[in-house]
Amino acid sequence: MLSGLHPQTGNDPCLSDHMGVRLMGPINTYSPTAAARAYVQLGWSVTVGHRLRPRAGCTCGNTNCPALGAHPLVPPGPRLVEDSIEEALQEAPGGSLIAATIPFDAVLVPYPIAMAVMLRLDRISPVPCLVTHGATAALLVLPVTGRYAAVHPNVEVRTGPDGWIALPPSNGARWDTPPWVESTHIPHELLNGQDVGRHLREVFKMSTGANTKGALQ
Ligand SMILES: [Zn+2]
Fold first, then answer.
1. pLDDT tens-digit series, residues 8-61
2. What is the mean pLDDT of residues 176-195?
3. 124 CA distance to ligand 1 centroid (A)?
4. What is the whole-number distance in angstroms between the Cα of residue 58 and the centre of ligand 1?
5. Ligand 1 centroid to residue 190 C-alpha, Å
6. Distance from the alpha carbon of residue 136 to the mean position of ligand 1, in angstroms
7. Which of 41, 84, 109, 195 is most buried, judging by how many CB atoms fall within 10 Å of its CB?
8. Residue 9 to residues 12, 33, 85, 180, 211: CA-CA distances in angstroms?
């Protein structure tokens, strides 16, 4: 699954987009090109960021880099456009894919908290959820509503053009729930941060006490 090719077709499934018919297989987020194209088609502002070099650490040069090979360049690289994604990725092989938090806000919480909230939210509407190194999860909500989900000191909200998330297949990043309906490029509708915040508050409350430490690590 780590090869760049789609396992069934051997091709990027999105290349079959012609004559008005978009043939879809599952979007292969292990393939930087297929993944980048899918993000760009959602209208997201995506740039190529730092990358992790084998045995040489993050290209930012910080030996204690807190986001190994998965954070934006300073200044950020050019925004990827659909026609030149392959070229851009060939110029920066292994580069992370960074999305600015413009068409969504990212609500970052400890992973176990996110999974408990996702169980509740699945009954309402699937919420795109990105997991980083199995430790933190980013729930995507409507833009400029993330602040309503900041219900606990362990919640970090990223919003606006200066905020960012590293997207799969960036180092350590994977989708728990991708931002599109499976096998399509139809985006999931985003919830208001308030709806997510209400459930977050309850889950944090339940996690306090008996198992706070375990749940928040
Ligand atoms: Zn770095």
1. 444 444 444 444 445 457 889 999 999 999 999 999 999 999 999 999 999 999
2. 91
3. 37
4. 4
5. 30
6. 17
7. 109
8. 8, 15, 20, 20, 46
